Amino acid sequence: MSMKNKDLLRSKAFVDGKWTDAHSGKTYDIKNPADDSVITSVPDMDEEDVKEAIEIADREFPKWSSMLAKDRSEILDKWYRLLMDNQEDLAVLMTMEMGKPLKESMGEVAYGASFIQWFSEEAKRVYGDVVPNHAQGKRIVVIKQPVGVTGIITPWNFPLAMITRKVGPALAAGCTVVIKPAQDTPLSALAAAYLAQKAGLPPGVLNIVTSNSASEIGKELTTNKLVKKISFTGSTKVGKMLMEQSASTVKKISLELGGNAPFVVFEDADIEAAAEGAIACKFRNAGQTCVCANRILVHDKVYDQFVEKFSEKVKKLKVGNGLDSGVDIGPLINDSAVEKVSELVEDALQKGAKLVVGSNKPEGRFFDPMVLTDVNDEMEMFSKEIFGPVAPVYRFSSDEEAIELSNKTKFGLASYFYSRDIGRIWKVAESLQYGMVGINEGLISTEVAPFGGVKESGMGREGSKYGIDEYLNIKYMLMGGL
């Protein structure tokens, strides 16, 4: 399958409005995870390249931040329209570099573009306050101002949406940005930058550095004094490291880190709806999402019924190259991911779990979707993020046990449960120690709601009216002598 707009496939980094190579001249290959074919090569930049991009973003910050909010809004709106006009080509490119089925890539392009549209509107709504004065002859005014140059580091599993979810509010607020996309999937980011340029985004406001050395680039972004804000999506381990590095210059920071989402099915649930929700929640992107169901907890009374319905649906899922028609599950991103999933499944099988659907024998990077029963909290997959098409189903016998098992993790990103009892719904929703709760719904992501977690799943929120606050500082001004 080919792209209509060949210009969307970029093989250079984007700095100061120009398509550029690394100063060293080094490059590295971007491969299709489905067959390891080389799509193109991109610059392998180092800290000197990043320093230059940061200095350019700092140079352009005063001009961009002082631009009328209405004018920034219009540029973002044009960018949104261009993203949607090129939805099919962007989806093909995404599937080629990341592997997810084309229909999911189409959905991600629309989802990613929605953040640009949303924040194009929010740019005009950064309001301050006039606070009642505390003394005669004085007045208190509170305003919000952009934080400055923002360093953005994104993962490979949503190569466009993780960019736009951060860049949208940053640009709307008046910040300039330097982006380090995941080394495996920079092409969606570069294509988006190409369209941003076409939309009229001034040079130097948005910069993308490509590199095969994530730690080197990350350290420069977190320690450079010109960078005032870091936004990162990725593993908790890396997030902690970036947080520690950012402390050296006390940067504003937002982190969207690992997850271990429970998906709870109570005895009064609509079992058919719960099974459908579990399919959507668990197997989207081959299970490679931070909010997908990692532990499916089902009440004893409906356990067998749920497993039967759920398994029937899992067996119908088609595995293959994401560009092929009718494919539901594509490849895992790399060989390390395959090895990790295989080890988690083998650990569970050795400790008594039963594999009722699928096989723990991948063909290359392709796994058949798996359903495991008789799983317990002593198995490694209870505490570790699977990030693969494996659905472990646990038992519980009371609301209290379900809540305890759900919260028995250091993570607190997304959670889900199915019930038709309004009292139980309120009790459980309030008791779950997670930043997001899906109730009788397996898909919760939307640009209008705040996305983020608690505990070791991070801090800050993306999307919604709250998302732009992550890129703003509050200034209090006291006027006397009035």
Automatic annotation (TrEMBL):
<dbReference type="InterPro" id="IPR050740">
    <property type="entry name" value="Aldehyde_DH_Superfamily"/>
</dbReference>
<dbReference type="GO" id="GO:0009450">
    <property type="term" value="P:gamma-aminobutyric acid catabolic process"/>
</dbReference>
<dbReference type="InterPro" id="IPR016163">
    <property type="entry name" value="Ald_DH_C"/>
</dbReference>
<dbReference type="InterPro" id="IPR010102">
    <property type="entry name" value="Succ_semiAld_DH"/>
</dbReference>
<comment type="similarity">
    <text>Belongs to the aldehyde dehydrogenase family.</text>
</comment>
<protein>
    <submittedName>
        <fullName>NAD-dependent succinate-semialdehyde dehydrogenase</fullName>
    </submittedName>
</protein>
<feature type="domain" description="Aldehyde dehydrogenase">
    <location>
        <begin position="19"/>
        <end position="476"/>
    </location>
</feature>
<dbReference type="GO" id="GO:0004777">
    <property type="term" value="F:succinate-semialdehyde dehydrogenase (NAD+) activity"/>
</dbReference>
<dbReference type="InterPro" id="IPR016160">
    <property type="entry name" value="Ald_DH_CS_CYS"/>
</dbReference>
<dbReference type="InterPro" id="IPR016161">
    <property type="entry name" value="Ald_DH/histidinol_DH"/>
</dbReference>
<feature type="active site">
    <location>
        <position position="256"/>
    </location>
</feature>
<keyword id="KW-0560">Oxidoreductase</keyword>
<dbReference type="InterPro" id="IPR016162">
    <property type="entry name" value="Ald_DH_N"/>
</dbReference>
<dbReference type="InterPro" id="IPR015590">
    <property type="entry name" value="Aldehyde_DH_dom"/>
</dbReference>
<dbReference type="InterPro" id="IPR029510">
    <property type="entry name" value="Ald_DH_CS_GLU"/>
</dbReference>
<dbReference type="Pfam" id="PF00171">
    <property type="entry name" value="Aldedh"/>
</dbReference>
